[in-house]
Design goal:
This protein is mainly α. It is built from 8 helices and no strands.
Length: 196
C-alpha cells in the first residue's frame, strides 16, 4: 500500500542517502516531526535526540546506536529519539567532526605533531575497532594511539557541548509542538461536524 511503484536501485538509494531529493531543509523538518510525534515528554524526546547527536561526536564507529541508547537509558531519555539523533553523524558531517574532535583533543593534550588534514580518520578508526575486537593492544598503542587518544580526549567536551546545543532549543520547541498537536486533537473531538 505504501510501497513505491518502481523499486529504487541500490545506486539511487545511495544517492538519496547522501543528497535527499526533497532537500536538506525538508529532510530536517521531517526528522523533527518524527521525533516530536514519539510518545513521551518534551524532556525525554529532546534529551534522547541530544544523546544521539552527542554520541555521533565520539570515535566509536559502529557503536553509536548502542552508546546513544545506553546514555539515553542512564538519563531517562527516549531511546528511539536517541537512535534518530545519531543522524547528526553522517557521511557529510563525519570528516568535520573527526577533524574538530582531534584538534580539540590535541589542544587539550598540547600535541601538535600530527596534522589533522593528513590523517585518514576512517581507516584509523575502522582498524582500531578491529584491533579492539582482537584485543590487539600493541596495534592500538603504537599505530592508532597518536590519532585515537586525542580524539577520545577531545570528544568529551565536544559531546557535552553538542548535547546542550541540541537539548536547550529542542525541549521548548517540542513542548510547544506537542501542546499545539494536543489542542488540535481536542478541537476535533469537541467539534466532529466541523472537521467532517
Amino acid at each position: 500500500m505504501f510501497q513505491r511503484r518502481q523499486k529504487q536501485s541500490i545506486l539511487s538509494r545511495a544517492g538519496q542517502f547522501f543528497w535527499p531529493s526533497s532537500g536538506w531543509h525538508r529532510s530536517t523538518r521531517y526528522v523533527f516531526h518524527r521525533v516530536a510525534r514519539i510518545p513521551g515528554s518534551a524532556y525525554s524526546l529532546a534529551a534522547g535526540f541530544a544523546c544521539g547527536a552527542a554520541i555521533s561526536f565520539t570515535p566509536f564507529i559502529g557503536l553509536h546506536f548502542v552508546l546513544a541508547a545506553l546514555l539515553a537509558l542512564v538519563i531517562r531519555a527516549n531511546v528511539l529519539a536517541s537512535a534518530i539523533g545519531t543522524v547528526v553523524g553522517n557521511p557529510w558531517t563525519f570528516p568535520f567532526i573527526w577533524i574538530g574532535v582531534f584538534n580539540v583533543g590535541s589542544w587539550i593534550l598540547r600535541i601538535d605533531s600530527v596534522d589533522a588534514k593528513a590523517v585518514d580518520f576512517l581507516h584509523v578508526l575502522t582498524e582500531s575497532m578491529e584491533a579492539m575486537h582482537k584485543l590487539d593492544f600493541e596495534y592500538l598503542a603504537e599505530m592508532s594511539g597518536p590519532v585515537l587518544l586525542p580524539m577520545l580526549v577531545g570528544c568529551v567536551p565536544v559531546a557535552l557541548f553538542v548535547w546542550l546545543l541540541f537539548y536547550i532549543p529542542l525541549r521548548p520547541i517540542i513542548s510547544k509542538y506537542q501542546a499545539a498537536r494536543h489542542h488540535r486533537r481536542t478541537r476535533k473531538l469537541r467539534d466532529p461536524q466541523e472537521h467532517s
